[in-house]
Amino acid sequence: MDVKTETTGKTPAETSGKTSLEPFYSLRSNIDRMFDEVMSGRSLWPTRTLFDWEPFRELPKKGGMIVPSVDVSETDDMVEIIAELPGLDEKNVEVVLRDDVLTVKGEKKAEKEEKEKDYYMMERRYGSFSRSFRLPESVEFDKIDADFSKGVLKITCPKLPETKPEEKKIEVKGD
Description:
Elements: H1 12-16, H2 22-40, E1 57-59, E2 65-67, E3 69-74, E4 78-84, E5 93-98, E6 101-115, E7 120-134, E8 145-149, E9 152-158
Antiparallel strand pairs: 1-2, 3-4, 4-9, 5-6, 6-7, 8-9
């Protein structure tokens, strides 16, 4: 219920020129701008987060850089990273661990050549990508495994077994 002032006969929102929904319009505008920046590759953020997502595509502003779709999940026992890399094979993919940062790199090259009686066509497409993920300290770095099958890279990072302190019941003494 809007209360009108005696002097103007208008609600405070009408007097200021703003509606009660103004903060929501401003929030939506800012969120739309952020999504536009991220999806166009112009993001001001220096790095991607661990759980970011985008389709496998070429970014025009980054000179043919490919951005693969990656799913990251974590359970009590492991961290699992699954990257969709269509058109690549294991020879074109590299997985490197340095300190606690796991980096997946790859390069996609495709050539298509057609020779017919009255024409000759050759197409070349290429691009590279590099994605890095900071792993938790609880991962057993010596046991990380990477499998590539049918365009999908699956990296499993087992965690160290947690050392739970033994539970000991302490007797409560009374007076």
